[in-house]
Each structure stands twice: as C-alpha cells, then as structure tokens.
Amino acid sequence: MSRLLDALVDICGPDYARVGRSVDVVGGRRAEFVAVPSTTPAVSGVLRLAADEGLSVVPRGSGSKIDWGTPSSGADLILDTGRLNGLWDHDVKAATVEVAAGTPVRSVQAALALRGQRLPVDPPSRTATVGGMLVVNESGPLRYGFRTPAEHVDRVQYVDLAGVAADSDGEGDNPGLAEISGVITSAVVRLEPLPRSRRWVVAPAPTPLKAARLAAEAAEHEVSAIETDLPGAAAGEVAALFEDSDPYPLATAWKATVSPTAPPWWGVYPFGRDDVALHLSVAPADLAATVYAVADAAGGAVPVRGSAGLGVVHAVLPGTLAPDRVERIVESTRHVLLARRGRVAVIAAPIALATRIEMAPPHELF
User: At 111, is the secondary structure helix, strand, or coil?
Assistant: First the structure.
C-alpha cells in the first residue's frame, strides 16, 4: 500500500493522493486510495499505474451520481476530478468554450454570464460537474427547448483506462460520449445567448390527465421548458418557462399569474438517497396513462416529476420495498409502455436494494 500511495503522490503531488476515508465509498465499499490529478498527463499517469497494478478505478466529480445505475462492486482507486477545473479558449463570437471536466456546471454558467452567454443545460444535481453531467447525459427542464447536454458538445478530451489520452467528437463514431471508457478531462461545448428575461406560468393540475392537457396547451406557445410536479397524495402543478417570449397569452388561458421565479420544485429531483427512482420515457400524449399504470402497479398514488412536454419524468417508490415487489412494479409498467414505445428503468436505489434488482446501465440513465 505504501508503494502505491508513494507512486500516486509522485503523479499528483503530496497533498493530492491519500488513502480512502469513510466518505470515499463506491458500491458500499471504501476505496483504498483517492487520487486528485490536475492535468490530463497526470490523469494518464494515474490510469497507467492502475492498469499496471490491476487496480479498479472509478472517476468522481462531486459524487452526486456515483452510486446511480448498475451497482459497482467497489473501487480500489477513486480518481477525483476536482482539480480539473476551469474554462479557456472562450470564443464569444463563435459561441464555444473549452471546459475542464471537474468544473461545477454552476460555476461555468456564472463565468459565461459575464459575457452574455450560457451553456443551455440545467442538470438537477445541484453540485454536478461538467464531466459527471456528460457521462450520463444528465438533463433538466431545458432539455425541452435545447436538447440534451451531449448535443452541445463539439469535442471531448479523455484518457482511456490504459492511460492513453485521446480526442473524440461529441456525437461521432470515434467514439461518442456514451462509448468512452475512461475519464473525460475536458469538453469543447457550444453556447447560446443568455436570455434577457425568464418568466414562469404555473397552473394547478389535480390529476395526471389534467397535467397532460395543460402541457399540450403550453406546447402551442414559444416555451423553453414544460414541467410537471405530481406529488401523488396531493394536487400537482404544471409550469411553463418563457425566455424572451410572451407568457401572457398562456397565463390568460390558464387564469394564472406570471412569475419571475420558478416554483420551488422546478428542476429538482423528486427522490432522495433512500428512495427508488424510476426513469419513465414515453410520448407526452401517453404520459397520463403511464402515471396511472405505475400507480396501479404500486397499489397507490406515486410521486412523479419531470418534463411533461417531453414525456420524460421520474417516479418515486419507497426504498423499503422488497426487491421482488420493485421488480413486479417495474415489469408491470414495462408491459404497459411496450405498446406505447416507452421505457422504464430503475436509475437509483439504496445500495442494499440496488444489488438485488435490475438497474439501468450508466449510459442509459437519461
């Protein structure tokens, strides 16, 4: 252990390699080592060492999604991207910038706003880094108007598991983001102008059917996002985001007020660490039927939140359910969605449960 730690210190620096602590857990197991490299060559050095020594490696940004998807059996080494931070080559006219993978998305947006631009993404993980967002293509409300984060990538720099650095087109064949096996170190992304105004129109939605109807009405207007929150036991809401467009025709139709601030649930996951999170994707017109199907399978109302405009939402089940009960609910929902060309997947669950049920592979989380 001392020999390996010394080697990691040589690569990363004396303050940036250490033995694992209680917070350095992957798949329910503490990692032996944590390395925090600051450059692409250092990332290469860490991964070459791991390959030579037969160490399993898991990259970590903020750690907000480290245990999502198919459970890992653990990691010998966590490669922390916290020092891969910053942005450069910001071409305001061409609307592109290169961003280090460990940079928090919120920090990127704050820096770009000074030049009147933004990366049109809003991942619900509040501490998400650019690399973590791209690895799973994590999307928030803005996906409705601006597509997924991967679709704003021109090129990424990454290091494969053998320690070899390479470049890849964001959506190309050499490989694309979903096929990268290694650690993304930076990405060149395309930007959009920062909107001058943002206003929300919110209407009550007592049932999933009403929510679907309101979403269809909002889709007839120039909106950047259409979200719904259906708490299950209580009446829900539908909200539409207008950016540099007129919200008042929809507000009049809904008999609603126009607000400069989002509702508190906007862009926030409806589930926590102790819950089972289902990712549902279906045509917007079939969303109400899907929500009812999940409720029928679960034996009662289920909280649901997400893009009513796209039919992409998350449903929440208690993390205390037995594994076979969760699998029956998922399988019942899957049968309903097959006829509607939709899909359901479990993306997050308590680790003790996640190891006993079918979970989504990491590249299929969103």
Answer: helix
What local confidence, expressed as pLDDT, does residue 362 receive?
A: 66
* Cα–Cα distance for residue pair 158/100, rounded to 1 Å: 11
Q: Is it the case that residue 72 has pLDDT exceeding 90?
A: no
Express each pLDDT in 34-65 by its tens digit: 999 999 999 999 999 999 999 999 999 999 99
Task: Name 268's Cβ contacts closer than 8 Å, sequence gap at least 6.
Answer: 124, 305
State the number of CA atoms in the 13 A half-sphere of 360 facing the CB. 22
Distance CA 230, CA 236 (A): 4
3-state secondary structure (DSSP) of residue 210: helix
pTM: 0.93
* Residues 2-80, CATH architecture: 2-Layer Sandwich (3.30)
C-alpha closest to that of 328 among 358, 351, 362:
358
Class of domain 198-364: alpha beta
CA distance 271 to 275: 6
pLDDT digits (tens, 9 = 90+) for 242-286: 999 999 999 999 999 999 999 999 999 999 999 999 999 999 999
